[in-house]
Amino acid sequence: MRIISGLYKSRKIIAPKNLPVRPTTDMAKESLFNIINNLYYFDEISVLDLFAGTGNISYEFASRGTEQITCVDQDFGCIKFINSTAETFEMPIQTIKSDVFKFLESSKIQADIIFADPPYDFTVEQFSKIPDLVFSNQLLLEGGLLIVEHSKHTDLSNVSNFSYSKSYGGNMFSFFEITE
């Protein structure tokens, strides 16, 4: 994986092969960040990266100037890799080793962008639990976005607070917003 833009543009990050991850493809990540770039100033937002895996998305935010980034993953190897990479590049990334659902149930951390990249084999009910917990616990700041990455074979358009989705190859991003 590589960092697409910003301070660390073109830097390659090689994750250990034994991590239980499926990093977002560069093409999908570039498309996603083109959308975000048109909506926010990266140096003015906070980010919560759920099911963070390798930290791929968080590195991109950090490279573009975001200074408040929290990664949550339950795998110790993933957390260790993110901490090591963040330290190497001097990126302002905090990590929390936790089951994401338990974290969402008790967290008080609010963010402008909450990005979730759960396993693609989740059921629609499991995917739906993410926005349900984010919105019921008021973790998304006003004007913010919850972005859930999933397979193009999964339809989240009937989930509460759904706004729109974008498809890139086999990847899909569903966007959720606070509704009146």
From TrEMBL:
Signal peptide: none annotated. Coiled coil: none annotated. InterPro entries: DNA_methylase_N6_adenine_CS, RNA_MeTrfase_RsmD, SAM-dependent_MTases_sf. Transmembrane segments: none annotated. It comes from the Bacteria. One of its GO terms (biological process) is rRNA methylation. The keyword 4Fe-4S does not apply. Pfam families: Cons_hypoth95. Keywords: Methyltransferase, Transferase. This is 16S rRNA (Guanine(966)-N(2))-methyltransferase RsmD. NCBIfam families: 16S rRNA (guanine(966)-N(2))-methyltransferase RsmD (TIGR00095). The gene is rsmD. One of its GO terms (molecular function) is nucleic acid binding. PANTHER family: METHYLTRANSFERASE. The lineage of its organism: Bacteria, Pseudomonadati, Bacteroidota, Flavobacteriia, Flavobacteriales.
